[in-house]
Amino acid sequence: MEIIRKVDELKNRITEQRAQGRTVGLVPTMGALHAGHISLIDKARADNDIVVVSVFVNPTQFNNPEDLRTYPRTEEADCEKLQVAGVDYAFIPTVEEIYPETDTRVFNLGPVAEVMEGAMRPGHFNGVAQIVSKLFRMVTPDRAYFGEKDFQQIAVIRRMVELENIDIDIIDCPIKREDDGLAMSSRNVRLSPEQRAIAPNIHATLDASLDYATTHSVEETKQYVIDTINSFPFMEVEYYEIVDASTMQPVSDWSGCTQAVGCVTVYCGEVRLIDNIKYPSK
Prior knowledge:
- 40% of the residues lie in helices and 20% in strands.
- It is an alpha/beta fold and 282 residues long.
- The chain has two domains: 2-173, Rossmann fold, CATH 3.40.50.620; 186-277, Pantoate-beta-alanine ligase, C-terminal domain (Pantoate--beta-alanine Ligase, Chain: A,domain 2), CATH 3.30.1300.10.
- The strands form two sheets. It has a six-stranded parallel beta sheet, sandwiched between helices. The chain has a three-stranded antiparallel beta sheet with strand order 7-8-9, with helices on one face.
- The longest helix is centred in the middle third of the chain and has 16 residues, at 124-139.
- 37% of the residues are buried.
- The model has no long low-confidence stretch (mean pLDDT 97).
């Protein structure tokens, strides 16, 4: 594995690989890697000749300076994991390398970016679109891989690709979970032992809501999830929305869309955790 820190060097390596007819897969990350990231890398390795993993904590997608400051940074451990995973190039640039000038681009991401995370974190998705579009232009991958834990983000990236007319396949991959059901996240390391013991109840509640939804309305199911999660110590729901998987817009009844997805954000202490679940079509 080669560690690359300069954009020009990365482009040169990709050009060399392209000249030999090789396909390229990209896994964008913010580091603090875990088994969820490795599952994306495994998929990218299976689909492509060359795998590039970016490790970059992108400041433009953080609307909370404290969240940016406390985001875990574990470059040495990350590189060890990437080496074992068989990555060809680890792209680990500085902020100055990615943003030599302030990125003032504003993307017309539309309704998919205006609800849930978009409403709670103003500017977040525009920052995501900035960094991902830059990475796509730098790496020119055939395919890019994202985890479904960030379900809304994938819809936003698809919209950005459409706006920017980028020729790429966006591959969404299943949520990777700990043995007790907690969705893997770089933020999990910030949970205290007591909070970590409670946090799996987020997924357990979502899972229980599948059965509850068979005999209750969308609104009743939403309230059930919120009330149940809030009943646990340390945990407070920021939002729970049941949305159309394609548009990210809230649904009012189960027959209102082809695929309904429940998306939740929960504060466990001061740690913000997200998860989601797909409801069976009715």
